[in-house]
Amino acid sequence: MSGDLRRVRVDYAGEHLREADVPAEPDELFARWISQAFAARDAGLIKEPNAMILATVEESDRGVQAAARAVLLKEYDALGLVFYTNYTSAKAAQLVQHPRATALFYWGPLFRQVRFEGTVTRVTRAESEEYFALRPRAAQVGAWASGQSSQVSGVEELEATYADVAQRFADVEQIPCPPTWGGYRLVPDRIEFWAGQPSRMHDRLVYTRVGEGWAVGRLAP
Ligand SMILES: Cc1cc2nc3c(=O)[nH]c(=O)nc-3n(C[C@H](O)[C@H](O)[C@H](O)COP(=O)(O)O)c2cc1C
Predict the structure, then answer these.
(1) N or C: the chain end with fewer CB closer than 10 Å?
(2) What is the pTM of this model?
(3) Domain ranges of the chain
């Protein structure tokens, strides 16, 4: 099997990103961009604007390895980005070893990419419980049923566990949040906003944390 994609080309034509137009606080710019990404979703151009690629650092007998997967952004503010997962998952183990991560958003139809780099900490138990209660019941059962990232014998094992858990909670109105499930907050110290431009002369503005504030710089494309 092979593929030749060398002639596949898309002309990028994003809105310019100029130093004079961006706010001092990067979360304000992110709020602007993600709300435009949701508008693009409403126009049918993007499926899940809050999906982000989360990259962590894995150390094993294979050596040091970058590990990446998609997760969903559930909250964001000046403090950082919150996502939810299983605390026994591979990513959780990696975050214990190295509590640093990158979160990347790529919104192709807008010719935009955002990269957050920072430190990851668990959210409070109260925050996890509050969000867990908002999840659909099937997803709540799934959180109890899945030892995320563990090896399983086959799909039958997963289906049997799911059915057992659903049965166990059949008479429980509000399924509690599993102790092994919860949120993380990525607290960024570097954020890069990328806006695709014609002739590959893309705009790249980087916010770097300096004390309580942020410095803004430009990188060559
Ligand atoms: C669009 C999309 C969104 C996802 N959202 C989440 C999520 O919010 N939390 C989560 O734990 N896994 C989510 N997943 C599954 C992860 O990509 C991954 O398979 C899982 O978390 C296990 O990763 P790990 O073994 O590296 O820990 C999502 C997958 C996709 C494709």
Answers:
(1) N
(2) 0.96
(3) 19-218
